[in-house]
Protein backbone atom coordinates (compact mmCIF):
# COMPACT_ATOMS: atom_id res chain seq x y z
CA UNK A 1 0.00 0.00 0.00
CA UNK A 2 2.76 2.39 0.95
CA UNK A 3 4.58 1.54 -2.29
CA UNK A 4 1.42 2.30 -4.31
CA UNK A 5 1.04 5.74 -2.66
CA UNK A 6 4.65 6.61 -3.52
CA UNK A 7 4.09 5.62 -7.14
CA UNK A 8 0.88 7.68 -7.39
CA UNK A 9 2.57 10.72 -5.84
CA UNK A 10 5.50 10.46 -8.27
CA UNK A 11 3.10 10.23 -11.23
CA UNK A 12 1.21 13.31 -10.06
CA UNK A 13 4.43 15.29 -9.77
CA UNK A 14 5.46 14.29 -13.30
CA UNK A 15 2.10 15.39 -14.69
CA UNK A 16 2.37 18.76 -12.90
CA UNK A 17 5.87 19.32 -14.29
CA UNK A 18 4.66 18.51 -17.80
CA UNK A 19 1.77 20.98 -17.56
CA UNK A 20 4.06 23.67 -16.28
CA UNK A 21 6.50 23.08 -19.14
CA UNK A 22 3.67 23.26 -21.71
CA UNK A 23 2.54 26.64 -20.36
CA UNK A 24 6.01 28.22 -20.20
CA UNK A 25 6.89 30.42 -23.19
CA UNK A 26 10.33 30.22 -24.72
CA UNK A 27 10.11 33.96 -25.55
CA UNK A 28 11.78 36.43 -23.12
CA UNK A 29 9.40 38.16 -20.74
CA UNK A 30 8.60 41.84 -21.31
CA UNK A 31 9.32 42.36 -17.64
CA UNK A 32 12.96 41.35 -18.08
CA UNK A 33 15.39 44.17 -18.95
CA UNK A 34 16.92 44.13 -22.42
CA UNK A 35 20.61 43.35 -22.61
CA UNK A 36 22.70 46.47 -22.14
CA UNK A 37 25.21 47.44 -24.81
CA UNK A 38 28.72 48.65 -23.95
CA UNK A 39 29.61 51.98 -25.58
CA UNK A 40 32.81 54.03 -25.40
CA UNK A 41 32.04 57.75 -25.54
CA UNK A 42 34.56 60.56 -25.97
CA UNK A 43 33.93 64.16 -24.94
CA UNK A 44 36.03 67.30 -24.87
CA UNK A 45 36.51 69.46 -21.82
CA UNK A 46 34.81 72.82 -22.19
CA UNK A 47 31.50 73.68 -23.87
CA UNK A 48 31.56 70.77 -26.33
CA UNK A 49 31.44 68.36 -23.40
CA UNK A 50 29.16 70.30 -21.04
CA UNK A 51 25.94 68.89 -22.43
CA UNK A 52 26.96 65.37 -21.47
CA UNK A 53 27.55 65.86 -17.73
CA UNK A 54 24.18 64.55 -16.51
CA UNK A 55 24.35 61.40 -18.62
CA UNK A 56 27.95 60.96 -17.43
CA UNK A 57 26.70 61.03 -13.85
CA UNK A 58 23.80 58.70 -14.65
CA UNK A 59 26.24 56.27 -16.27
CA UNK A 60 28.37 56.34 -13.14
CA UNK A 61 25.25 55.66 -11.06
CA UNK A 62 24.29 52.75 -13.31
CA UNK A 63 20.92 54.20 -14.34
CA UNK A 64 21.51 54.65 -18.09
CA UNK A 65 19.91 52.50 -20.79
CA UNK A 66 23.32 51.10 -21.72
CA UNK A 67 26.81 50.89 -20.25
CA UNK A 68 28.78 54.03 -21.13
CA UNK A 69 32.50 54.47 -20.58
CA UNK A 70 33.44 58.14 -20.95
CA UNK A 71 36.83 59.53 -21.94
CA UNK A 72 37.47 63.27 -21.44
CA UNK A 73 40.13 64.91 -23.63
CA UNK A 74 41.46 68.45 -23.59
CA UNK A 75 41.92 68.81 -27.37
CA UNK A 76 40.43 67.24 -30.53
CA UNK A 77 43.86 65.98 -31.59
CA UNK A 78 43.84 63.58 -28.64
CA UNK A 79 40.68 61.91 -29.94
CA UNK A 80 41.05 61.94 -33.72
CA UNK A 81 43.13 58.74 -34.19
CA UNK A 82 40.91 56.74 -31.82
CA UNK A 83 37.72 57.92 -33.53
CA UNK A 84 39.13 56.97 -36.93
CA UNK A 85 40.12 53.54 -35.60
CA UNK A 86 36.63 52.93 -34.26
CA UNK A 87 37.66 52.88 -30.60
CA UNK A 88 34.81 55.27 -29.74
CA UNK A 89 31.25 54.55 -30.81
CA UNK A 90 30.12 58.10 -29.97
CA UNK A 91 32.06 61.35 -29.58
CA UNK A 92 31.44 65.06 -29.02
CA UNK A 93 33.73 67.02 -31.35
CA UNK A 94 34.03 70.30 -33.29
CA UNK A 95 31.74 70.41 -36.32
CA UNK A 96 34.52 70.92 -38.85
CA UNK A 97 36.38 67.93 -37.37
CA UNK A 98 33.27 65.84 -37.92
CA UNK A 99 33.45 66.68 -41.64
CA UNK A 100 37.18 65.92 -41.72
CA UNK A 101 36.59 62.56 -40.02
CA UNK A 102 33.78 61.74 -42.45
CA UNK A 103 36.12 62.35 -45.39
CA UNK A 104 39.04 60.46 -43.84
CA UNK A 105 36.91 57.42 -43.05
CA UNK A 106 34.91 57.56 -46.31
CA UNK A 107 31.62 57.89 -44.50
CA UNK A 108 32.57 55.97 -41.39
CA UNK A 109 31.37 58.84 -39.18
CA UNK A 110 27.92 60.44 -39.03
CA UNK A 111 26.65 63.54 -37.21
CA UNK A 112 23.71 62.74 -34.94
CA UNK A 113 23.12 66.12 -33.26
CA UNK A 114 24.48 69.63 -32.80
CA UNK A 115 25.46 70.36 -29.20
CA UNK A 116 27.20 73.75 -29.15
CA UNK A 117 26.66 77.03 -30.99
CA UNK A 118 29.06 80.00 -30.88
CA UNK A 119 31.31 80.30 -27.81
CA UNK A 120 34.23 82.45 -29.00
CA UNK A 121 35.16 85.92 -27.75
CA UNK A 122 38.10 88.24 -28.33
CA UNK A 123 39.51 89.57 -25.07
CA UNK A 124 41.78 92.56 -24.90
CA UNK A 125 43.88 94.68 -22.58
CA UNK A 126 43.67 97.44 -25.21
CA UNK A 127 40.78 99.46 -26.57
CA UNK A 128 39.27 97.34 -29.35
CA UNK A 129 35.84 98.54 -30.47
CA UNK A 130 35.57 96.76 -33.82
CA UNK A 131 37.25 94.15 -35.99
CA UNK A 132 38.86 96.98 -37.95
CA UNK A 133 40.79 97.93 -34.81
CA UNK A 134 42.70 94.65 -35.10
CA UNK A 135 44.64 95.93 -38.11
CA UNK A 136 48.36 95.89 -37.36
CA UNK A 137 47.79 93.83 -34.20
CA UNK A 138 48.76 90.32 -33.11
CA UNK A 139 45.85 88.14 -32.05
CA UNK A 140 46.58 85.01 -30.05
CA UNK A 141 44.22 82.07 -30.40
CA UNK A 142 43.83 78.38 -29.59
CA UNK A 143 42.95 75.20 -31.51
CA UNK A 144 44.78 75.72 -34.77
CA UNK A 145 43.17 73.68 -37.54
CA UNK A 146 39.79 73.60 -35.82
CA UNK A 147 36.66 75.77 -35.88
CA UNK A 148 38.15 78.66 -33.85
CA UNK A 149 40.86 79.26 -36.46
CA UNK A 150 38.40 79.19 -39.35
CA UNK A 151 35.87 81.40 -37.59
CA UNK A 152 38.59 83.94 -36.81
CA UNK A 153 39.87 83.88 -40.39
CA UNK A 154 36.34 84.26 -41.76
CA UNK A 155 35.58 87.26 -39.56
CA UNK A 156 38.91 88.94 -40.35
CA UNK A 157 38.56 88.34 -44.10
CA UNK A 158 34.96 89.53 -44.05
CA UNK A 159 36.19 92.81 -42.60
CA UNK A 160 38.86 93.29 -45.25
CA UNK A 161 41.79 92.05 -43.15
CA UNK A 162 44.27 89.50 -44.46
CA UNK A 163 45.88 87.11 -42.00
CA UNK A 164 49.65 87.38 -42.21
CA UNK A 165 49.51 90.84 -43.75
CA UNK A 166 47.06 93.05 -41.87
CA UNK A 167 46.77 90.88 -38.76
CA UNK A 168 49.22 88.41 -37.25
CA UNK A 169 47.64 85.32 -35.68
CA UNK A 170 49.66 83.27 -33.20
CA UNK A 171 48.46 79.98 -31.73
CA UNK A 172 49.07 78.70 -28.23
CA UNK A 173 47.30 76.53 -25.66
CA UNK A 174 44.29 77.86 -23.78
CA UNK A 175 45.93 77.94 -20.34
CA UNK A 176 48.92 79.94 -21.56
CA UNK A 177 46.69 82.37 -23.43
CA UNK A 178 44.35 82.81 -20.48
CA UNK A 179 47.23 83.48 -18.08
CA UNK A 180 48.86 85.92 -20.50
CA UNK A 181 45.67 87.89 -20.99
CA UNK A 182 44.96 87.99 -17.26
CA UNK A 183 48.47 89.25 -16.45
CA UNK A 184 48.54 91.73 -19.31
CA UNK A 185 51.51 90.03 -20.99
CA UNK A 186 49.28 89.28 -23.98
CA UNK A 187 47.34 92.23 -25.34
CA UNK A 188 44.71 90.52 -27.50
CA UNK A 189 43.50 86.94 -27.61
CA UNK A 190 40.52 84.85 -28.68
CA UNK A 191 39.21 82.26 -26.25
CA UNK A 192 36.11 80.11 -25.86
CA UNK A 193 33.95 79.97 -22.78
CA UNK A 194 34.52 78.95 -20.01
CA UNK A 195 38.12 80.18 -20.39
CA UNK A 196 36.70 83.64 -21.00
CA UNK A 197 35.04 83.71 -17.58
CA UNK A 198 38.14 82.32 -15.86
CA UNK A 199 40.34 84.92 -17.56
CA UNK A 200 38.08 87.83 -16.68
CA UNK A 201 38.00 86.67 -13.06
CA UNK A 202 41.81 86.49 -12.88
CA UNK A 203 42.66 89.75 -14.69
CA UNK A 204 42.16 93.35 -13.61
CA UNK A 205 42.21 95.10 -16.99
CA UNK A 206 41.24 92.46 -19.53
CA UNK A 207 37.72 92.65 -20.95
CA UNK A 208 35.56 91.22 -23.71
CA UNK A 209 36.12 93.27 -26.85
CA UNK A 210 34.28 91.28 -29.52
CA UNK A 211 31.66 88.52 -29.59
CA UNK A 212 32.70 86.42 -32.57
CA UNK A 213 29.19 85.07 -33.12
CA UNK A 214 27.89 88.62 -33.48
CA UNK A 215 30.75 89.50 -35.83
CA UNK A 216 30.02 86.41 -37.92
CA UNK A 217 26.36 87.40 -38.18
CA UNK A 218 27.28 90.88 -39.39
CA UNK A 219 29.00 89.28 -42.36
CA UNK A 220 26.50 86.51 -43.07
CA UNK A 221 23.33 86.26 -41.03
CA UNK A 222 22.01 83.52 -43.33
CA UNK A 223 24.25 81.04 -41.53
CA UNK A 224 24.73 80.33 -37.85
CA UNK A 225 27.89 79.45 -35.98
CA UNK A 226 27.67 75.81 -34.90
CA UNK A 227 30.87 74.74 -33.18
CA UNK A 228 30.15 71.37 -31.59
CA UNK A 229 28.31 68.17 -32.45
CA UNK A 230 27.72 64.55 -31.48
CA UNK A 231 29.07 62.00 -33.96
CA UNK A 232 28.49 58.25 -34.14
CA UNK A 233 30.42 55.42 -35.74
CA UNK A 234 28.44 54.51 -38.85
CA UNK A 235 28.98 50.75 -38.60
CA UNK A 236 28.03 50.66 -34.93
CA UNK A 237 24.93 52.79 -35.56
CA UNK A 238 23.80 50.42 -38.32
CA UNK A 239 24.23 47.42 -36.04
CA UNK A 240 22.88 48.97 -32.83
CA UNK A 241 20.45 51.78 -33.74
CA UNK A 242 18.44 51.32 -30.53
CA UNK A 243 21.56 51.84 -28.41
CA UNK A 244 22.49 54.98 -30.32
CA UNK A 245 18.96 56.36 -30.12
CA UNK A 246 18.85 55.65 -26.39
CA UNK A 247 22.06 57.59 -25.87
CA UNK A 248 20.79 60.53 -27.92
CA UNK A 249 17.59 60.65 -25.86
CA UNK A 250 19.62 60.60 -22.65
CA UNK A 251 21.96 63.27 -24.01
CA UNK A 252 19.01 65.49 -24.93
CA UNK A 253 17.62 65.01 -21.42
CA UNK A 254 21.06 65.91 -20.03
CA UNK A 255 21.02 69.22 -21.92
CA UNK A 256 17.52 69.96 -20.60
CA UNK A 257 18.68 69.14 -17.07
CA UNK A 258 21.55 71.63 -17.34
CA UNK A 259 19.16 74.35 -18.48
CA UNK A 260 16.86 73.71 -15.51
CA UNK A 261 19.53 73.02 -12.89
CA UNK A 262 22.56 75.21 -13.71
CA UNK A 263 24.02 75.10 -10.21
CA UNK A 264 23.86 71.30 -9.90
CA UNK A 265 25.10 70.93 -13.47
CA UNK A 266 28.05 73.21 -12.69
CA UNK A 267 29.03 70.84 -9.90
CA UNK A 268 28.85 67.90 -12.31
CA UNK A 269 31.10 69.78 -14.75
CA UNK A 270 33.77 69.92 -12.04
CA UNK A 271 33.17 66.35 -10.89
CA UNK A 272 33.64 64.89 -14.36
CA UNK A 273 36.55 67.08 -15.45
CA UNK A 274 34.66 69.11 -18.05
CA UNK A 275 35.41 72.43 -16.35
CA UNK A 276 37.90 72.69 -13.45
CA UNK A 277 35.76 74.81 -11.14
CA UNK A 278 32.00 74.67 -10.57
CA UNK A 279 31.85 78.42 -9.92
CA UNK A 280 33.38 79.11 -13.33
CA UNK A 281 31.04 76.64 -15.03
CA UNK A 282 27.97 78.27 -13.49
CA UNK A 283 29.05 81.78 -14.46
CA UNK A 284 30.13 80.78 -17.98
CA UNK A 285 27.11 78.65 -18.84
CA UNK A 286 24.89 81.44 -20.29
CA UNK A 287 27.60 82.26 -22.85
CA UNK A 288 28.34 78.64 -23.77
CA UNK A 289 25.27 78.22 -25.99
CA UNK A 290 24.75 74.55 -25.13
CA UNK A 291 22.02 73.05 -27.29
CA UNK A 292 20.56 69.88 -28.75
CA UNK A 293 19.46 69.95 -32.38
CA UNK A 294 18.87 66.90 -34.57
CA UNK A 295 16.89 65.99 -37.67
CA UNK A 296 16.26 68.38 -40.56
CA UNK A 297 17.18 71.49 -38.58
CA UNK A 298 20.55 69.98 -37.68
CA UNK A 299 21.18 69.15 -41.32
CA UNK A 300 20.24 72.63 -42.53
CA UNK A 301 22.31 74.50 -39.93
CA UNK A 302 25.38 72.33 -40.35
CA UNK A 303 25.32 72.26 -44.14
CA UNK A 304 25.13 76.05 -44.27
CA UNK A 305 27.96 76.48 -41.76
CA UNK A 306 30.22 73.95 -43.48
CA UNK A 307 29.52 75.58 -46.85
CA UNK A 308 30.86 78.87 -45.50
CA UNK A 309 33.96 77.16 -44.10
CA UNK A 310 34.51 75.27 -47.36
CA UNK A 311 34.32 78.42 -49.47
CA UNK A 312 36.84 80.08 -47.17
CA UNK A 313 39.18 77.05 -47.03
CA UNK A 314 38.25 73.61 -48.42
CA UNK A 315 40.76 71.92 -46.10
CA UNK A 316 38.81 73.19 -43.09
CA UNK A 317 36.25 70.43 -43.79
CA UNK A 318 38.65 67.82 -45.10
CA UNK A 319 38.80 68.95 -48.73
CA UNK A 320 35.21 68.16 -49.71
CA UNK A 321 31.74 68.82 -48.39
CA UNK A 322 30.12 65.70 -46.88
CA UNK A 323 27.32 63.93 -48.70
CA UNK A 324 23.81 63.30 -47.42
CA UNK A 325 24.97 60.11 -45.68
CA UNK A 326 26.90 62.38 -43.29
CA UNK A 327 23.72 62.82 -41.24
CA UNK A 328 22.41 60.17 -38.88
CA UNK A 329 18.66 59.61 -38.89
CA UNK A 330 16.86 57.96 -36.00
Question: How would you characterize this protein structure?
Answer:
It is built from 14 helices and eleven strands. The longest helix has 21 residues, at 2-22. Helix 7 (174-183) packs parallel to helix 8. The strands form three sheets. The protein has a six-stranded mixed beta sheet, sandwiched between helices. Strands 8-5-9 form a three-stranded antiparallel beta sheet. It is α/β, with parallel strands linked by helices and 330 residues long. The chain folds into two domains: 38-117 and 226-326, D-Maltodextrin-Binding Protein, domain 2, CATH 3.40.190.10; 120-219, Periplasmic binding protein-like II (D-Maltodextrin-Binding Protein, domain 2, 3-Layer(aba) Sandwich). The termini are far apart. The chain is 46% helix and 18% strand.
Topology readout:
Elements (H helix, E strand, L loop, with lengths): L1 H21 L15 E7 L2 H4 L2 H9 L5 E7 L2 H9 L5 E5 H10 L4 E8 L3 E5 L13 E4 L5 H12 L9 E4 L2 H10 L4 E5 L2 H8 L4 E5 H8 L8 E6 H6 L1 H20 L1 H10 L6 H7 L5 E4 L1 H18 L18
Parallel strand pairs: 1-2, 1-3, 6-7
Antiparallel strand pairs: 3-10, 4-10, 4-11, 5-8, 5-9
Amino acid sequence: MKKLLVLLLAAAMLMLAACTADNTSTEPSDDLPAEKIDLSVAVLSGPTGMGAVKVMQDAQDGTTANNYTFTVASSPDELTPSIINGEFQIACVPTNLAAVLYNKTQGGIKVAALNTLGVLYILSNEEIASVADLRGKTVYATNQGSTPEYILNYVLTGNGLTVGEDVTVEFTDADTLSAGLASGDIAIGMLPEPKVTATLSAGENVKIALDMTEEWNKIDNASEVVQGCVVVNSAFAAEHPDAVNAFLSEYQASVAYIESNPEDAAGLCETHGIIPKAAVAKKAYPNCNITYVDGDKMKSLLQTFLNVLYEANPQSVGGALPGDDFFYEK
